[in-house]
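Late entry, written up from scratch paper. The run itself happened at the end of the previous shift, but nothing got recorded in the book at the time, so transcribing now.
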Amino acid sequence: MEAILNGEVLETPDDLIDAFENLTEEKRQVEAELRVIKDALYSLCKGEAVTQHVRGERRKCRVIKPKRCWDQRILRDAWDEFPEERNELLRIRALSVQVRPLGVAMRTSGPESWTAFRNAVVDAEAPSDRSPAVKITI
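Output as recorded:
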């Protein structure tokens, strides 16, 4: 497998790993600089609107407030502690599969209802829309 990057042919695994490592570092630096710029633009915004505009002499931009974040541990504690009230303010947004127990379940036989449940979970798996993760080890 070879890749062409900026006109340079990368043929060996070492070439590909070197290029990946270099670009990953450049990306990290650019993302950090972009964060500083975004925060500076956000600090110029007034009011509570989610979408705001910042205008200079020559340029203008739209700034969208970051989404609010919640400490999942504290929310889980509130979910468990207040079963009567929890549905007023909290919701379960997504279910996820426990992969290790699923592997065991794939090798386990059981009642028809349990097997149907297991098969429904297996059938729910969809192709990933993400790129593979690469971690350099040497």
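Residues 13-43 form the longest helix (31 residues).
(Scratch paper discarded after transcription.)
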